[in-house]
Amino acid sequence: MLGSATFTGSQAEAASYHTKAIKVAKSELGTKYKMGGISSSGFDCSGLVKYSYQKAGKTLPRTAAEIYKKGKSVKTLQKGDLMFFAPNKAKKPTHVAIYIGDNQFIHSASSKGVSYAKTNNTYWKPMFIGAKRI
Predict the structure, then answer these.
(1) CATH number at residue 105
(2) NlpC/P60 domain spans which residues (predicted)?
């Protein structure tokens, strides 16, 4: 039992790998952006997500569009949920990030590398197309 909530085995496992994935992503803060990058020498957005979840024990596809096909769509974000973005609200996402709580996400952006952003960021918010829980 954690606080007043109780978790089933699968809920506790999900909370555990989500926490691990976030911890891995945070450990890469400041890593430069690299198109096609999937390691600490440089990440693109989906490379960071794939790397972080792999270190937490979950295998994900390589691109944002492929990852978007996985998991369950969610309306209310929880830590570890994946956020997807597309220009002009296109159906096919071109960017993915990990929600870390407190209206923030971590991602690898071409302008800043691995960094935090707010969910209400004026650049990203209009491109948000949905979230998935893996």
Answers:
(1) 3.90.1720.10
(2) 15-134
Is residue 107 flagged as an active site residue?
yes
Q: What are the tens digits of pLDDT across the range 83-108? A: 999 987 777 999 999 999 999 999 99
**Tokens in use for 118?**
């707010």
Q: Of the listed 18, 67, 86, 107, which one is catalytic? A: 107
Q: Is residue 48 part of a domain?
A: yes
Strands (E), 1-133: 38-39, 42-43, 72-74, 82-85, 95-101, 104-109, 113-118, 128-133
Q: What six digits make up the tokens of 111? A: 């302008």
Q: Of 84, 95, 100, 128, which is the active-site residue?
A: 95
45 as an active site residue: the answer is yes
